[in-house]
Specification:
Elements lengths: L4 H6 L18 H12 L21 E3 L5 E3 L5 E4 L5 H12 L3 E6 L2 H15 L4 E5 L5 H15 L4 E4 L16 H27 L5 E6 L13 H23 L5 E7 L6 H5 L4 H10 L3 H18 L6 E3 L3 H14 L11
């Protein structure tokens, strides 16, 4: 899971606005309040403060494995995506398959894996997509996932950590059950750590090396996520974990494995839509959210460009940039664009 309704429900208490766009002569008081909401969450931040994709190193990446052999990383790529039987994970799998890559999908549910696998194989054939059950919270499950990938593909070029949970719960932390908190933290934090550990161990021994992408979510920028406090805290930890792993690899002088952040923005998953029970949430979902397929069409070419360019630098790829959010909110307030796209607003 990427970003949830936390994004919509937590973008509501902004306290500063772009003065040129919020003067009384330009916007109504209601419009000014929406700009004020968006400003606090850095949607209007100057480009220097936004997470942007870093410049690539223009050279062919030749990865050295522990056995002394080396191979250039060239397409088609072998891709593994956790939590990929629905939502943005499934959409990413489809886009990689369209690009000619080989893909492994996984989920906690055997039934969902089998259903997704049947649909993908019907469209792309049996020789390019595989699937298996994996609970990312279980170290043995993730180790078996790595073995499954090696048995079927020999190596993984791109590993995307998409599995995540909010326990489908929208309530203050004081009302959260033990079970919900354990579900969120063990999936989003422990599960991510286990997957990163096993992915790095496998890729360090691959002649082609590899790229790991950790998907962030609401709270990753340090802003509050009311009613999603546990989820936001775990997603904040995603960014810290990625930076720490980047530093560890650099200290160890490892150049054939790179860890990146990936931000899909506000995606119209079932989880996001089920949390749209306030006027503000409906406003921001209508204005900023996009279907998973549209987000994947943007993200996959950007992900694939990293190994193809020979980059060894960590990147932070964002779908919903501050400029894009600013433009869409402005178009909505000025011209009524995107009104009632998903929900009827009062």
């Amino acid at each position: 899971m990427a970003i949830t309704a936390a994004t919509a429900s937590s973008i509501f208490t902004y306290n500063h606005t772009p003065p040129s766009l919020t003067s009384p002569s330009f916007l109504s008081s209601n419009s000014r309040s929406h700009f004020s909401l968006a400003a606090k969450y850095n949607l209007f931040a100057p480009s220097s403060s936004l997470h942007r994709k870093q410049q690539f190193v223009s050279r062919t990446l030749v990865c050295s494995g522990s056995n002394g052999n080396s191979q250039p990383m060239v397409p088609p790529y072998n891709v593994l995506i956790t939590g990929s039987t629905k939502g943005i994970g499934y959409a990413l799998a489809k886009e990689f398959l369209k690009a000619g890559d080989n893909v492994i999908i996984c989920s906690r549910s055997d039934e969902r894996v089998e259903s997704a696998l049947q649909n993908l194989r019907a469209e792309f054939g049996d020789q390019h997509v595989w699937g298996t059950k994996c609970d990312v919270r279980d170290g043995n499950d993730v180790k078996n996932l790595v073995k499954y990938a090696q048995d079927n593909l020999q190596y993984v070029d791109i590993w995307i950590n998409n599995a995540g949970s909010n326990a489908y719960s929208y309530k203050p932390l004081a009302e959260a059950s033990d079970e919900d908190l354990i579900e969120v933290v063990t999936t989003n934090t422990l599960g991510l750590m286990i997957c990163c550990r096993e992915a790095m161990k496998a890729m360090l021994n691959q002649p082609r090396g590899g790229h790991i992408f950790n998907i962030d979510g609401a709270g990753s920028d340090g802003r509050p996520t009311p009613r999603f406090a546990a989820y936001g805290a775990t997603k904040r930890s995603v960014v810290h974990l990625t930076k720490s792993l980047q530093a560890e690899l650099q200290m160890q002088e490892v150049s054939n494995v790179v860890v990146h952040n990936l931000s899909p923005g506000m995606v119209t998953t079932d989880l996001l839509m089920s949390g749209a029970n306030t006027k503000q949430a409906k406003f921001f979902i209508n204005v900023l959210a996009e279907p998973a397929d549209e987000v994947a069409k943007y993200l996959v070419p950007n992900i694939r460009s990293i190994p193809s360019s020979g980059s060894t630098r960590p990147t932070y790829i964002r779908f919903l940039t501050g400029l894009k959010a600013y433009s869409q909110i402005f178009s909505r307030l000025a011209f009524g664009a995107r009104r009632n796209r998903y929900f009827v607003e009062e």
